[in-house]
Amino acid sequence: MNDRYPLNRDCLSPLRLVTARGSRLLSLSLCALMLSACAVGPDYQRPSVAEPAQYKHAQGWRQANPSDSLARGAWWELYGDQQLNGLVEKLNSSNQTVAQSEAQYRQAQALVASARGAFYPTVDLSAGKTRSSQGTGSSSSSLSSSSSGIRNTYNTQLGVSWEADIWGKLRRSLEANEASAEASFADLAAMRLSQQSELVQNYLQLRVIDQQRRLLQATVENYQRSLKMTENQYRAGVSGKDAVAQAQTQLKSTQADMIDLIWQRAQFENAIAVLMGQAPAEFTLAETQDIPALPEVPLSLPSQLLERRPDIASAERSVIAANANIGVAKAAYYPDLTLSLSGGYSSSTSADLISLPNRFWSVGPQLNLPLFDGGQRSAEVDRNEALYDQTVAKYRQTVLDGLREVENYLVQLKVLGDEALVRQQALDAARESLRLIQNQYKAGLIAYLDVVVVQATALNNERSVLTLQQSRLLASVQLIAALGGGWDGQLMAAESQ
């Protein structure tokens, strides 16, 4: 066997006990109880992973107070939007993707219950009737004499069997199933977090579109007034036909942009409906006047990332399960001891079946040790060791991916915050420029083309600020999800019991 995964051998040799003079049932039972503390295979140790002291892009990021920690609770409430809170709560109860993961978790829990049941004796009760006949060996026998050889047998039997977990095969199997159930619970939390994040992002984008629509609506109204003023000036001979055409072009282009927002909003609205488990035709989200404010996202240390992200928790539980399965595979090298007891009644008639003369019983141990299997057990150990190495690599990669995501969203939020300051300054300048150019046009000092250029610049800056606000909101959601959201790793132990 491979020495890479050492055996836990702190027990007496069972072969010496089995071959000892105490071959009676009581002696074997005592031996099994003494040896039940043994468990072959490696004991689990968490694989080493990269844990930097701090995030590279967290410099200058204000650390939130402990009372603001995201380690528990509904993280989406940070955005302070009651309607959003209600939508996420509906998702938590009705999302069908989450329901699939929840059903998978219940399957894993059932496997744990089945593994625990293997520690208890198996009790079987059977009752039946057998009709049999044996030929006389003579071809000249008559039909009547052959028929007289038919015999009826009635029997009822109660059997009890119990496998002594000498080498810890059952315990390792239970350990693997419990770890798999915890991994399934973490997968459920990861799927729920993913769906919540998707809904919050869709909702925020929809609210930004509502704000863009209000902006375009106000711009259209302003352009309509400009068009009317230009037409009046044209009729008065103050301006030319080209000014009217420019005003019309500007107005219609902005109206087209506003119409284009309709299908974009509908897509986000439909996506939110499906995330809540509803048909899109049955869901409508009314417009609101405000966009949720950008929250201050508290950060955790990199070492806490291992506890806060459900996908990392799931990956580590898979390592635990793979480690335990090595013990299950190595236990196949050692003999299985089964204690069995059976008894009942057997008779040729049913009338006096339950009577003292018809009783029978049997009791005794059975030791089973495969001597040759063509290398199957060795291959199974190698397979489980390779699977363990695979899960370790996946766990480490999951941690690295988590650290990368946090770093990406940190730098994105920092850069977008810096950009927001500059964008706002550009917007303020564009608004002031527009105010001045409009006054000059009203005074007849400049042509309308100059006004059109400045109006287009101001509108582009307005929309750029909204787009940037949307990007910052989405990045905040993604950072919260990368930090684990409202994941509570301590719930795994309670839910898996």
UniProtKB/TrEMBL annotation:
Pfam families (alphabetical): OEP
Alphabetized UniProt keyword annotations: Cell outer membrane, Lipoprotein, Membrane, Palmitate, Signal, Transmembrane, Transmembrane beta strand
Signal peptide start-end: 1-39
Cell compartments where the protein resides: Cell outer membrane
Entry GO MF terms: efflux transmembrane transporter activity
Compositionally biased residues, Low complexity: 132-149
GO CC annotations on file: cell outer membrane
Similarity section: Belongs to the outer membrane factor (OMF) (TC 1.B.17) family.
Record's protein name: Efflux transporter outer membrane subunit
Lineage: Bacteria, Pseudomonadati, Pseudomonadota, Gammaproteobacteria, Pseudomonadales
